[in-house]
Design brief:
Layout lengths: L1 H13 L18 H14 L7 H14 L2 H18 L11
Length: 98
């Protein structure tokens, strides 16, 4: 649990637009791009090399974030905005096959 609190504190301090987990919609991969899109890419990057301990894991995560292609982040954000706007549409995109 301590690592979770540390991670939250780090994100809140280092990421100006960080959205608190209490504001995340529950069980919605469409509205949690960090959990489902960005983290999946970062996870692949982090685990390309063997991780020996928690400190090394932290280093790999920070390094992966630093090298994460901005287009991946933009794509995840764009997808989230489309889903959010579609939630209030009279004809959801899913019904249109989009």
């Amino acid at each position: 649990m301590c690592l979770l609190i540390e991670s939250y504190a780090l994100l809140a301090a280092e990421t100006p637009d960080f959205i608190s987990p209490t504001l995340w919609p529950p069980n919605s991969p469409d509205l949690n791009p960090v959990d489902y899109k960005i983290w999946a890419v970062m996870q692949d990057m982090v685990h390309k090399q063997k991780v020996r301990d928690v400190d090394e894991l932290r280093e790999h995560i920070v390094e992966s974030w630093d090298h994460l292609n901005q287009s991946i982040i933009d794509s995840a954000i764009s997808r989230t905005e489309i889903i959010k706007s579609d939630m209030f549409s009279s004809t959801p995109l899913i019904l249109l096959g989009k």
